[in-house]
Amino acid sequence: MTVDQASPVFRARSISKVYRMGEVDVTALRGVDLDLYAGELAVFLGASGSGKSTLLNILGGLDVPSGGKVYYREREITGADESERTGFRRKSVGFVFQFYNLIPSLTALENVELVTEIAGEPMPAEEALRLVGLESRMHHFPAQMSGGEQQRVAIARAIAKRPEVLLCDEPTGALDYATGKRVLEVIEKVNSTLGTTTAVITHNAAIADMADRVIRLRSGEIIDVYANPTKKRPDELSW
Amino acid sequence: MTILNRKVFRELARMRGQVIAITLVMACGIMLYVSSRHTYISLLKSQESYYATYRFADVFAGMKRAPASTAEEIARIPGVSRVRTRIVMDVNLDVPGLDEPATGRLVSMPERRRQVLNDVAIQRGRYPAIGRPEEVIISEAFAVANGLVPDDWIGAVINGRQKALRVVGIGLSPEYVYEVQGTGSIFPDNLRFGVIWMARDALGAAFDMEGGFNDLSVALSSEARERDVIDRMDLVLEPYGSTGAYGRDGQISHRFLMDEIIGLSVSSNFTPAVFLGIAALLLHIVFSRMVRAQRDQIAIMKAFGYNNLTIGWHYLKFAFLAISGGTLLGIVGGFLIGRPLTALYQDYYRFPDLVYELNFEVIALAAIISVSAAFLGTLHALRSAMSLPPAEAMRPDAPAHFRPLSMERLGVHQMLSPVWRMIFRNMERKPVKTLLSAFGIAMAVAILVMGRFTFDSIEYLIDYQFRTVQRDDAAVVFAGPRPARARFELSHLPGVVRSEPYRAVPVRLRSGHRMKQTAINGLDPAGELRQLIDRDGQTQSMPPEGVVLTRTLADLLAVREGDMVAVEVLEGSRMQGRLPVSLLVDELIGISAYMDNRALNRFLGEGSTISGAYLSVDPLRADALYATLKETPAVAGVAVREAVIRGFEDSIAESTSATTFTLTVFACIIACGMVYNGARIALEERNREMASLRVLGFTEREISVVLLGEQAIVTLLAIPIGFLIGWGLCYLAVNATAQELYRMPLVITGKTYAFAFLVVSAAAVVSAYAVHRQLRHLDMIGVLKIQE
C-alpha cells in the first residue's frame, strides 16, 4: 500500500490532555504532534497509561483535548461542539473496542443495520458481514457467538458506513492467540481492500509488524515514529 | 458508624431521585390512611359524644294525636327507660330574602329548659323565655344558609294563620345531624328547610294539641330488645293514628350518618392499601435492580466472611431508610390534613363539637403497614442477595441472553427499525418486569378514574332522577288529604302550566318475614310529570291495578313482578290488604312505591282524595306563584326542583372537588414515580448500550428514543388496563355504598377517561424529560473501558 504523504487525514498539533481524577490532575498527553495519512495502517504502541487510548478518543471525536488543535482534512475538530462531533463520528469514523460493545438485544445483522440506517452511503449490512467472514452467523445474537465472532461483528459494524478512518482500541485485547490473529486479518483486509485509514492501538509489540507506520508512546508523549518497510501479513505474526 | 452503614447512607444519597419517588408514594398512602382513619374515628367519637350528651332517642313514632296519658302507658313497656312527647308540625315559612316558600319543622320544647331526649345544643343566642310564645331557636344549617341571626324575624303559617317568629337562638340536635325533611327529599336543602324549636304551650295552642301530642321519642334500657318495644308501642299507639314506631335504623339523619361512617371505614382501608401496594411494587423494582448491580460487592463481602444475615439486614436497612421519610411525612401530613377533611363533613353533618385528636393506635398501625410494605417489596431482592454463592457472584452477570421471540415468529420485526427491535426485545425478555411497571402506572390511571367518577355518577343521578323521573318544576304538599277538586284551585294559580294530583299514603309493606316502611304514591295515569322508567331506560305506563315497586324495594322485600305484598296503611282507616306487584321500575333515590291514583283510592275505600300536586311552572311567573303558595294555609310545603338540585350541587361540589384534587395529586405522584424509576433503571442497566450508540454517532435525541420508547409503550399499555381497573374499583365502590336512600349509578363518562389519560401522559412526559436530561452526562469513554 502506497501512502500519500501529501494529504494527511488527521493533523494533531501540541495536543495535551489533563484529567481530573478526584482531587489529582493526571496528565495523559503532553504536547503531541501527529499526522495520519490517507489509506495507511498505523499501529500505536505503548504500555498501559502511555496515553494511546486518549489520543485515539480525541482523534475520533469522543473526547476533547485540554490544549492544542486537531484537524480532520481541513476542518478543525477541536473547536466543534458536541452535536458537530456526533455528526463527525456518525459520518467519518468507525470504532472498534476491546470489549466489542455490541447491543445484546440485536442480532449480528441488526447490530450492523443499526449503523447503516443512520449513515449516508453505507454498504449493505450483509456485505459488511461477508467481509468479516460472518455471512453464516448473521441471525445470531451476541450471546450466541464467541468473542472473536463478536469482535468481527463490531468491525463489520464499524466499516459498514464506509468510514474514512477506522480506529481500533486493543481489538485483540480480550481474545486468545488464534482468534486475535483472525481479527487482525479482517482489519488488514479492510485496510487493503477498502483503503480505509486505520489506526490500531495495542501494547503487543508483535502487532507492529503488520503496520505501514509505527507510533510509540510513553507517558503521554510520542517517543518514536518509524515506517515499517517489511510489512508482514497477520498470519505471519507471532507472539 | 460501621462501614456498612456508611455504605447505606452514601448509596441512598446517590439514588436520591428514586428514594424521593418511593418516599412520595409511601407518604401518599400513609397520609391517606392516617387522615381517613382519623376522620373516621373523629366522626364516630363525635357522634357518640353528641348522642350521649344530648340524649338521642332509640325509638321514634309519629301519630295524628294521642292524649298525654298515653305516655305513661308507653313508659310501662318493659325496656323503655325514658319517654318524651312532642308536637312536631311542618309549616310553610316566609323567610326574608327568599322568593320560594320554605318549610319549617316546628318542634316543641319544654317551657322551662330541662334535660330532655333529643335535646337542642344551643350554638348562639339563648333558650326562649317563658311567656314569650314568639321566641324560637332555629337550626344552624338553615340559619347559615339564609343568613339569619338572633333577633331576626321569620314568618310562618301556623294552622292557617300568619305568625311572626323571633329568632333568639341558633341550635343543633342529634336528630338533625343530617338536616333533611324526610322521604322524597333526601338531599339537604338548607335554604328551604329548617328546624324550628318553640315553646310547647304556644305550639299546642296553635294546633289544638293541648293535653296531647303527635310525636314520641323513647330511650331504651341496655337490656331492651328494640323489636319487642316497637311491637308493643305500635299496639298502644294504633288507635291514635300512628304511622308506626321505628328504631334509629329508620331515623333518616342517623341512617345517613351511619352510612357515611361505614363507607368511610371501608374506603379508609381500601384506597391506602392501593397506594401501599404500589409503594411495595416500586421498592421491589428498585431493590431488585440494586442487588443485581451489586453482585460483585455482595460476593466480596461474602468472601471476606460476612454472613447471609448481615448482608440481608444490610439491604433491608436500605428499604427501611427509604420508607422512613415517607412514613413520617405521611403520619404528620395525614394528621394535619385529616382535620380540614373532617371539617368538610360539617357541611352535611353538623356536630356541636368535632372531636379530633391524635390516635396512637392509627399511628402505630401506619408504621406497621409501611414496614410490612417495605419488607414485602424487598423480599425478592433480599432472597437473591442472600442466596448468591460468592464464587458465582464474583463472575460478571451472564450476558443478556436473547433468543428469537414471538416478534420474530410473527414476522413483525421486519417492519421495525433496529432501534424499535431493541425496545421490543427488551420488553419481551423481561415480561414480568414490563407487566409490573405497566400495572403500577395502570393503578395511577385507575385512581384518577375513581376520583373523577363521583362527579359523573352524581351528575347522572341528578339528571336521571330530577330530569327523567321527576319532571315537575315544583311539588306541592297539602297539610292533609284534600278532595280532588283542590287540584283545580291549584291549576288556576298564576304561572301554573300543568298540575297533576297525587295521593301519598304511608304504608308498611310485608312479604313473608320481610317488612319495609314507605309510602305509596298514587299517580294520575295520564300524567306526564312523573315517569316510570324500567331497567332498560324505557318509559312504562302505569298499570291500572296493583302496585309498582322500585327494584331496590322489591329486592329488600324479595318479591318479583306478579307476587303479592301485604299492605298495612299507617293513616286514617289503618286498613290492611294485599296487592299484586304489577311492575318494577328503576330509580336511584329512595324506595318508592306507586299506584294508579284511582286504584289507590279504591284500595283505601275513599273517594277521590289527593295529598298534593306536581306542577309544571312558567318560569317567568314562578316568583308570583311561590309568593302565593307561601301564604296559602292549606299548603304544608313546596319542593322546587331546580332549587333542590342547585342546593345539592353546591354542597356536594366542594367535598367532591377536594377528594378529586387529592387523588389527582397522588395519582400524578404514582405515575411520575413509576415512569421515572422505570427509565432510571433502564438507563443504569443499559448505559453501556447507550454509550455505544453515542460512539456510533447516534444523537442524544436518538438514544433517548431507545430509552424512553420502552416507557412510552409501557405507559400506553397501562392506560387501557388502568381504565379496566378503574371501572372495577368504581364497581366495588358503587356496591360498597349501595344504600336504600340512594344508589350511585356506575356511570363513567368519556371526559373522565380522557382526564385520566391526559394526566398520566403528562406525568409520564415530565418524568421522561427528567431522565432524558441525565443522558447528557453519559460517560462514553468510561463505559467502554469496562468489561460487561
Structure characterization notes:
The complex is a heterodimer of chains A (239) and B (788). With 239 residues, chain A is an alpha/beta fold. Helices cover 28% and strands 29% of the residues of chain A. Chain A has one domain (38-62, 85-236): P-loop containing nucleotide triphosphate hydrolases (Rossmann fold, 3-Layer(aba) Sandwich). Chain A has helices at 52-59, 82-92, 108-116, 125-131, 147-159, 177-194, and strands spanning 8-21, 24-37, 41-45, 67-72, 75-76, 93-96, 165-169, 197-202, 213-218, 221-227. Chain B has 788 residues and is α+β, with helices and mostly antiparallel strands. Chain B has 23 helices and 22 strands. In chain B, the strands form four sheets. Chain B has a six-stranded mixed β-barrel. A six-stranded mixed β-barrel of chain B has the order 13-14-20-17-19-18. Chain B has a four-stranded antiparallel β-sheet with strand order 2-10-1-11. In chain B, a hairpin with a 5-residue loop joins β15 and β16 (539-540). The mean pLDDT of chain B is 86. The A-B interface holds A 53, 57, 62-63, 83, 86-87, 89-91, 93, 95, 97-99, 101-106, 110-111, 113-115, 117-118, 141-143, 157, 174 and B 399-403, 417-419, 421-422, 425-426, 429, 688-689, 691-699, 702, 780-781, 784-788.
Structure annotation, total helices of chain B: 23
Rg of chain A to the nearest angstrom?
Answer: 17 Å
* Count of strand segments of chain B: 22
Mean pLDDT of chain A: 89
| Uncertain regions spanning at least 5 consecutive residues of chain A | none
Tell me, what is the CATH class of chain A? Alpha Beta
Give the low-confidence spans of chain B: none
Major sheet of chain A, described briefly? 6 strands, mixed
Q: What share of residues are in beta strands of chain B?
A: 15-25%
Largest sheet of chain B: 6 strands, mixed, barrel
Radius of gyration of chain B: 33 Å
Helix and strand pattern of chain A: EEEHEEHEHHHEHEEE
Distance between the termini of chain B: 33 Å
Largest binding interface between chains: A-B, 33 and 32 residues
What integer is the average pLDDT of chain B?
86
